């Protein structure tokens, strides 16, 4: 068996060529365009289609959505950005740019979003309880069952999911 020697005609060394190629591959973005997205929505060929910078179009027979894939503290994370019919390619790229800035600051974008969602739910429950307690025109208030999470007026339940519900009791 004969061995062959491959000569590189590039003025760069082989390692420099690979480094430049690797940087170009990891930094490239914009592989998808509006026409490609429209074709994905129309024909729905199942798969994951990379736009670069961690943005993927996830397509299956039932749905099309945007995903942001990133690594944080040694763990691979996937973050949904919304359906392709609701979120444009430009909006998805803008969201990914913001999440990459958060990641560069040492924050986990997925955990930040979960905390924001939990705070919104807590604020909504608090407003609902305040509405239940407010009694117009000097009418008799309806007494509600006490619960430590609500105070003396109402009951918060979780039902095994992340959404909190306020249940008043007459």
Overall tally of domains? 2
Following the backbone from N to C, one meets helices and strands in this order, namely: HHEEEEHHEE
The major β-sheet equals: 4 strands, antiparallel
Can you identify the CATH class of the largest domain? Answer: Alpha Beta
Q: Roughly how many Å is the radius of gyration?
A: 26 Å
Number of strands: 6
For the record, the CATH architecture of the largest domain stands as 2-Layer Sandwich
Side by side, the strands of the main sheet go 1-2-3-4
CATH topology-level name of the largest domain? Double Stranded RNA Binding Domain
Helix content: 25-40%
- Helices, by number, come to 4
Calculate the terminal CA-CA distance, rounded to whole Å.
90 Å
Percent of residues in β-strands: 15-25%
Poorly predicted residue ranges: 143-164
Q: Mean pLDDT, as a whole number?
A: 77
Structural class: alpha+beta
Shape, please?
Answer: extended
């Amino acid at each position: 068996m004969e061995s062959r020697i491959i000569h590189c005609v590039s003025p760069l060394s082989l390692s420099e060529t690979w480094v430049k190629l690797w940087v170009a591959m990891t930094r490239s973005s914009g592989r998808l365009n509006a026409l490609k997205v429209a074709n994905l929505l129309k024909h729905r060929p199942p798969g994951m289609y990379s736009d670069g910078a961690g943005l993927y179009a996830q397509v299956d027979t039932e749905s099309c959505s945007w995903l942001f894939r990133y690594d944080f503290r040694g763990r691979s994370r996937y973050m949904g950005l919304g359906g392709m019919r609701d979120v444009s390619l430009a909006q998805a790229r803008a969201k990914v740019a913001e999440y990459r800035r958060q990641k560069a600051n040492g924050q986990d974008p997925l955990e930040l979003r979960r905390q924001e969602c939990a705070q919104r739910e807590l604020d909504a429950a608090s407003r609902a309880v305040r509405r239940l307690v407010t009694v117009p025109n000097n009418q008799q208030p309806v007494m509600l069952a006490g619960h430590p999470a609500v105070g003396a007026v109402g009951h918060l339940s979780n039902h095994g999911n992340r959404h909190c519900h306020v249940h008043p009791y007459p």
